[in-house]
Amino acid sequence: MIAVGNHSLIINSKKLVFSSCRKVTSSSIKVVPIRAKEMSLKTSIDVSSNEGGGINSTDDSCGSKRRSTNIVWHKCSVEKSDRQELLKQKGCVIWITGLSGSGKSTLACALTRALHSRGKLTYVLDGDNVRHGLNSDLTFKAEDRAENIRRIGEVAKLFADSGIICIASVISPYRKDRDACRSKLPEGDFIEVYMDMPLRVCEARDPKGLYKLARAGKITGFTGVDDPYEAPLNCEIVIQQEGEVCPPPEVMAEKVICYLDAKGYLQA
């Protein structure tokens, strides 16, 4: 149905308003017959945007979305160095990786608490917490796990750029995914912390009961059981047991803080 009046055109209940210096009458509009096929609700409309919101994004033969080609980075006059000067610290990403039950979240919480007490601004991106919101649409299939890490890496990068010390606590079992996150940041701003705890220790802890489920075959693709964990080859910090005793959270946190202090991240 097409209705004309008060200088507006209504098509399929969506109002497209236009202005005109002359009065529009029904006799001045030429209506062209439209085939039913062309009146599909999925109408494509070209809209100009300064944010590159899908302009020139097209579907390929498989239906997947190709990236827009006409987007341009907009530089702001307030830069990372300005934000770091304001916070009196340097933004970076502390990426804590290791098996489930290795103590990643324990270290992350102890570290953010210790830095907070020193007047430093931090934020923790916990692997489980992120899956409650940002990554709630992802499964634990290989491709989704890679996307999970990619998204966390991108968010961590934004935090670091804002001048915040971002602590990412994620299993992130594959080197290529961790290395991809490292490559997003300036040299030195990605600090990989490897929780090098024996599988038997992690499995004995089993705080979520996941190892028990994996051993019983109730869940599959579980890191350390029927899916591999690729240990870092050149990480900045390694946290290990001292004999048969795991170091207290405060001791582990202090080891990371000493590194940050030595590298100049605790001052602008």
Automatic annotation (TrEMBL):
Residues 46-65 are annotated as: Disordered. Residues 90-240 form the APS kinase domain. InterPro entries: APS, APS_kinase_dom, P-loop_NTPase. Its EC number is 2.7.1.25. It catalyses: adenosine 5'-phosphosulfate + ATP = 3'-phosphoadenylyl sulfate + ADP + H(+). Pfam families: APS_kinase. Pathway: Sulfur metabolism; hydrogen sulfide biosynthesis; sulfite from sulfate: step 2/3. It comes from the Eukaryota. Keywords: ATP-binding, Kinase, Nucleotide-binding, Transferase. Residues 46-61 have a biased composition (Polar residues). Catalyzes the synthesis of activated sulfate. PANTHER family: ADENYLYL-SULFATE KINASE 4, CHLOROPLASTIC (PTHR11055:SF44), BIFUNCTIONAL 3'-PHOSPHOADENOSINE 5'-PHOSPHOSULFATE SYNTHASE (PTHR11055). Belongs to the APS kinase family. This is Adenylyl-sulfate kinase. It comes from Tanacetum coccineum. The lineage of its organism: Eukaryota, Viridiplantae, Streptophyta, Embryophyta, Tracheophyta.
